[in-house]
From TrEMBL:
EC number: 2.7.4.6
GO molecular function per UniProt: ATP binding; metal ion binding; nucleoside diphosphate kinase activity
GO biological process, one term: CTP biosynthetic process
InterPro entries, alphabetized: NDK-like_dom, NDK-like_dom_sf, Nucleoside_diP_kinase
Annotated NCBIfam families: PRK00668.1
The protein's required cofactors: Mg(2+)
UniProt similarity note: Belongs to the NDK family.
Superkingdom to which the source organism belongs: Bacteria
Name listed for the protein in its UniProt record: Nucleoside diphosphate kinase
Length: 132
């Protein structure tokens, strides 16, 4: 069965949105295979977002993802990688459609509420990185 990796980011944990976000994934028919509240270290954040290291928003992204505890999870189900990206919505909160997680809860970058793997290759690498 296909698996994907999610992070419910610190701003969402702080705002009490964990239950609401997990409810949406479960309502879509996805199964929670792993779930853990964990503070992401700066070293792990740098590795996870290494492909963005040269972007101007990288320092702010590192600060945001390490600002407090996150909820890390592995979700499972048919086509769950694409389903979870659809449920998350567009990266830019101004472009995320109402009804998506970001469309409903994200206000400004870099605070995008959730991370979700974007391909089978990244899902496998991210599950290994955080739950290996
Ligand atoms: O999270 P997603 O895969 O949708 O987007 P990304 O392009 O891989 O960017 C990763 C994260 O960097 C986003 O979720 C934002 O937190 C942050 N970001 C930002 O602060 N400003 C941007 N212009 C693009 C991304
Ligand atoms: Mg991405």
């Amino acid at each position: 069965m296909e698996q994907t990796f999610i992070i419910i980011k610190p701003e969402a944990v702080r705002r009490g949105l964990v239950g609401e976000i997990l409810r949406r994934f479960e309502a879509k028919g996805l199964t929670i295979a792993r779930l853990e509240l964990r503070q992401i270290t700066e070293a792990t954040a740098r590795e996870h977002y290494a492909h963005h290291a040269d972007k101007p928003f990288f320092p702010g992204l590192l600060r945001a993802i390490t600002a407090g505890p996150s909820v890390l999870g592995v979700l499972e189900g048919p086509d769950c990688i694409r389903h979870v990206r659809n449920l998350a919505g567009a990266t830019n909160p101004l472009e995320a459609q109402p009804g998506t997680i970001r469309g409903d809860f994200a206000n400004e970058l870099p605070y995008t509420i959730v991370h979700a793997s974007d391909s089978p290759e990244t899902a496998q690498a991210e599950i290994q990185r955080f739950f290996g």
